[in-house]
Amino acid sequence: RALRAGAPGGPVPRGATSGISSAAFDRHGDGVLPGGMDDRHFAANPVVTWNHDTAAPPAGLSAWRRVTARGVLARTVYPARPEELAPAVAWTPDVAWALVRSGLLVGKSIGFLATRTRAPTAEETRARPEMAGARQVVSGWILLEYACVFLPANPEPLVLPEGAIRALGERTAEVAMKRLGGRAGEAGGGDGGRKG
User: Is the pLDDT of residue 44 over 50?
Assistant: First the structure.
């Protein structure tokens, strides 16, 4: 049977809330603006990959994504191993969840298709001097996937600390959104297909 991330009435899934992208410039010199995200296609098949490997079994499912002033916030669910799966077969969500909980796998990274790019404006460069050396500003992009990664190109998108998540309880999304400058319920609408 199909498992939907965050299906109502089901058991509480194993999951973590994290940033998946931010307005910070990544190690390639690209700034991907959070408000430019289009996740409509991704929402139909919200698979979270392992280190951007789309040929390998996924690490989890994305229950939701929210655009905030500082970045894109998401909830990743790591489904429990299905009973039908042979014990000898590795279950990637188990490995990912164990590493997330241990603090060894806290990075997230987006795979995207840029639809609008430009150079930083003079006003942006005055407000954020680090933009002077930027390669490009990605102001429109299609979310193809996001991944659990050890070393993200953008150093800011990380899993929120478990203690903070536990303390926030049921209101995790609303409180995290408020702290990151967004509103609960907001939804999101590379260089080409680059991972970032």
Answer: yes
Q: What is the pLDDT at residue 7?
A: 43
CB 15 within 8 A of CB 77: yes
65, 98 contact by CB (below 8 A): no
| pLDDT value at residue 117 | 96
Q: Which residues pair with 118 in a beta bridge?
A: 137
Backbone angles phi, psi at 25, to 5 degrees: -75, 135
Rounded CA separation 131/25 (Å): 8
pLDDT at position 134? 86
- Which among 32, 23, 10 is positioned nearest to 140, based on CA atoms? 32
- SS3 for 129-181, per residue? HHHHHCCEEEEEEEEEEEEEECCCCCCCCEECCHHHHHHHHHHHHHHHHHHHC
Q: In sequence order, what are the beta bridge partners of 32?
A: 138
For β-strands 136-149 and 30-32, DSSP reports them as parallel
**To 5 degrees, how large is the angle CA 70–CA 73–CA 76?**
160
Element (H, E) at 36: none
What is the C-alpha to C-alpha distance for residues 39 and 21, in angstroms, rounded to an integer?
A: 13
3-state secondary structure of 25: strand
- For 3-23, what is each residue's pLDDT tens digit? 344 444 445 579 999 999 998
Contact yes or no for 72/107 (Cβ under 8 A): no
Structural contact between residues 75 and 64, judged by C-beta atoms closer than 8 angstroms: yes
